[in-house]
Amino acid sequence: MKLEMNDFIEKNKVIAICRGTYGEKLINLVSALNDGGVKLVEVTFDQGDPECLTKTPKAIASLVKEFGNEVKFGAGTVLSIEQVEAAHQAGAEYIISPNTNSSVIKRTKELDMVSMPGALTPSEIISANEAGADFVKVFPVRALGIGYIKDILGPINHIKLVATAGVTPDNLQDYLDLGFSGAGISGYLTDKRLIDTGDFATITKHALEMMSIVRENNVLN
């Protein structure tokens, strides 16, 4: 399963990050994203919520039941083995973290899920890769700018990277041109204002815009 999931991520590239949205709103959000062609959805553990170990797996399970294999779901902001196991039981197929924790990576791989820990510096990225990561989430990718990314890609061009934090329609192509395998996107695809007002049509429009960039990139490469 893991190899198929790796290929699916590299093909679809855009991972929509859903944070703090549950129930019917979450179902409607994912439906809007799916209508726009986004097939990868991350549901995060809200570490500030004492009920996150229950709420996030419940949300993932409801999405898997609703969408089946049409959309591939993962868990985000995963900081512990306990969260890895809860996400796995709920049906998550990949684990995303803001940091690199070798124990989390190891358990993720043992459960045949895709591992995507977070890192920023060359040392962190290489350490994540050596610990067994399938992809490394460069986070926060916007913080040090495109120039920084270009500088570090020379010695680490063998590692599959996913850009996260600050990725927009204006710069997604830049990251793909640099060789990134994909991008995690929150605000533009999961805008809380649009969700709360029920404007899911705009979310679908945003998803279509992002996926048109992906499709063009796939054709050219």
TrEMBL record:
Q: Does the keyword Lyase apply?
A: yes
Q: Which controlled-vocabulary keywords does the entry list?
A: Carbohydrate metabolism, Lyase
Organism's domain of life? Bacteria
Record flagged with keyword Transmembrane helix = no
**Pathway listed for it?**
Carbohydrate acid metabolism
Q: Which segments of the protein form a coiled coil according to its record? A: none
Question: What InterPro entries does the record tag this protein with?
Answer: Aldlse_KDPG_KHG, Aldolase_TIM
Quaternary structure, per UniProt, is: Homotrimer.
Task: Give the family, as the similarity comment puts it.
Answer: Belongs to the KHG/KDPG aldolase family.
Indicate what this protein is called per its UniProt record: Bifunctional 4-hydroxy-2-oxoglutarate aldolase/2-dehydro-3-deoxy-phosphogluconate aldolase
Native organism: Enterococcus hulanensis
Its taxonomic placement starts with: Bacteria, Bacillati, Bacillota, Bacilli, Lactobacillales
